[in-house]
Amino acid sequence: MRILIATDAWHPQVNGVVRTLTSLARSASALGVAIEFLTPEGFPSLAVPTYPGLRIALPSRRGIAERIDAVSPEAIHIATEGPIGWAARAYCRRRKLAFTTSYTTRFPEYIAVRSIIPAALGYAVLRHFHAAAAVTMVATASLRQELSARGFKKLGTWTRGVDTELFRPDDPAGLDLPRPIFMSVGRVAVEKNLEAFLALDLPGSKVVIGNGPQRPELERRYPQVHFLGEKTGHDLTMHMAAADVFVFPSLTDTFGVVQLEALACGTPVAAFPVTGPLDVIADHPVGALDADLRSACLRALGLSRQACRTFALENSWENSARQFIGNLAALQPSRSPRPVRRATRGSAVRG
Questions:
Q1: What confidence tens digit (pLDDT) does each residue in 52-63 have?
Q2: What CA–CA distance (Å, rounded) separates 129 from 13?
């Protein structure tokens, strides 16, 4: 089976969508399924003032069609609702091809905190976008319920996983900081609600790993917090394994793959009881959920690190990939036949 995934989120971006898609492709390959990506690479782009360093692709209709035709996929999945996603959607609609989508980011809330555009309008646009899909995949039961209440139809499930070979507890970084260490990892941006963590009165040290537009402001306002910048690969794993508690303060993430990555490193999670943490942690003894984030952080200190690792081992990317592939398998073939050139008067047909 050959799948094409259209996505606006791609390298060098560092976020949950990019990590999810690259992990999916790797696991799908081991299952005998080839995944190709239609990304912003090669298209002209426009800078986004509110996201320093981020650029939005400006794809052409012809360019999108040429790239999809070159892959000749048996199934098409649209992962994001940006320009690449809309262009791929239009391609499928013109050719009457079935396709799937996934809801991975709360764009209505993210846009609302940066502009005067109300979230309700954003959700109306997203309902229209996803209504054309055969299935819209969501990561959690609570998100599925929430979107259903907002009028989204044809919702399916696609859970997330964790690379337990990369994220391990056995080689922690030697952080020379007062214990306990409370750590948060992710994009340093307003929608991640980092201030809810940074403002807490906690013992020991607070560490933030990641970059983003809010970092300079937060570094000035919270000089006692250790901002270590972006970490990747084994370096990231070592730092996550060195933390005593992983703090996930987001109120808007649809899943939060980074929670599973922390658990795979043996680090318990502290979070608010919202979509994402409620589904990942639930009532498992690997994290503490509380509307009082400080209370959650302190309770998480007493949890078993071995229990965290064991829990993560049960959430593989292979299982996630099987679920994703199953959602697309029923759509085959979602490939338009290549046009046959017809002979015109005065032309020769060569065979």
A1: 666 889 999 999
A2: 23
